[in-house]
Design goal:
The chain has 335 residues and is α/β, with parallel strands linked by helices. The chain has a domain of 192 residues: P-loop containing nucleotide triphosphate hydrolases (Rossmann fold, 3-Layer(aba) Sandwich), CATH 3.40.50.300. It contains twelve helices and twelve strands. The radius of gyration is 21 Å and the shape is globular. The two termini are 16 Å apart.
Length: 335
């Protein structure tokens, strides 16, 4: 297990609310997680669970209004990023912590060539003399697998395929050699073959540059190939956390079990895949007690009334389901 000494980022009790005509809604409700040197941490959950909001909070990119971080800490090398003004945060954003967004076509500026956009990131942080920036951009395009980088340097985003645009976004994110790379659903809009190429690229670049990765996704099948540790998120809270093998071999929360059961496998070929009934609750109308209880087959009366605490299975494995914890403890296989 990683030690506290190699912790790059520590998020503690993060609360993010959004105001609307119906009042304040907590999109993130007391989330805590760590990122250690050289590892890939994945936050997994359905759309609307708060995983993207959590990642945007790290970089100070929550739109205000209507969003507001109302509680918690985000500690990078022990410094609380929430205490920094915009000028100081800009010195960290991009240079120390960078992000690859979900849809590159809307993230890239359509009126500037991609080479100029990569160069801008380097110029902003004044990391290289101007006469060396062009060569650095070409090296980055080559690193991310863009063929004929000198020609592509002058291309506009609409002239590239979806996979090429995502590679450009990765090149931009890596241009300042960040310590942490946040990848928010970077393969969602891509076909399966290109998805595999992008995941392989991220893994190889991580090994080469030594960066830590925070990977945001709804796809557990993707997670199994890249994650060191997994945080399963539901309705603004972390419901389970463990190293990847523990999550896949011994899931300890009904939500995690439901996600895994819905994955297609060779053994399930020709069978109808089970699905979790219902939908993620509206953050403004989150149910009392455990937020998953309306969709949970194990729910008892206490689940409807009491917010569940984390149950400790040992070896860094925690789950927010006391019902399953008690059942497993009685069977004697809690470890």
């Amino acid at each position: 297990m990683p030690s506290a000494n190699d912790t790059l980022l520590r998020v503690r009790d993060l609360v993010v609310s959004f105001r609307s005509g119906a009042g304040a809604a907590r999109a993130v409700n007391g989330v805590s997680f760590d990122i250690h040197e050289g590892e890939t941490v994945c936050i997994v959950g359905e759309s609307g669970c708060g995983k993207t909001v959590s990642s945007l909070s790290i970089l100070g990119l929550i739109p205000s209004p209507p969003g507001e971080i109302t509680a918690g800490e985000i500690l990078f090398h022990g410094v609380n990023l929430l205490d920094l003004d915009e000028e100081k945060l800009r010195t960290i954003r991009g240079e120390k912590i960078a992000m690859v967004f979900q849809e590159p076509l809307t993230s890239l500026n359509p009126v500037f060539p991609i080479g100029d956009q990569i160069a801008e990131a380097i110029e902003t942080h004044k990391l290289l003399p101007k006469d060396k920036i062009h060569q650095r951009c070409l090296e980055l395009l080559k690193d991310v697998g863009i063929a004929s980088p000198e020609e592509r340097f002058k291309d506009y985003p609409h002239q590239l395929s979806g996979g090429q645009r995502q590679r450009v976004m990765i090149a931009m994110a890596l241009s300042c050699t960040p310590e942490i790379l946040i990848a928010d659903e970077p393969t969602t809009a891509l076909d399966v073959t290109v998805q595999a190429q992008i995941l392989h690229l991220l893994r190889s670049l991580q090994r080469r540059h030594g960066a830590s990765v925070l990977y945001i996704t709804h796809d557990l099948a993707v997670v199994s190939h890249i994650a060191t540790r997994i945080y399963v998120m539901y309705a603004g809270i972390i419901v389970e956390q463990a190293i990847t093998d523990q999550i896949f071999k011994s899931p300890r929360h009904p939500y995690t079990q439901g996600l895994l059961a819905s994955l297609p496998t060779r053994l399930k070929k020709g069978q109808q895949l089970p699905s979790i009934p219902g939908t993620v609750p509206d953050p403004a109308r989150r149910p009392e007690g455990c937020p998953f209880h309306p969709r949970c087959g194990l729910a008892i009366a206490a689940c409807r009334e009491e917010f569940p605490e984390m149950c400790n299975y040992g070896s860094g494995h925690f789950s927010r389901c006391p019902v399953l914890f008690e059942e497993i403890s009685h069977r004697g296989d809690a470890s």
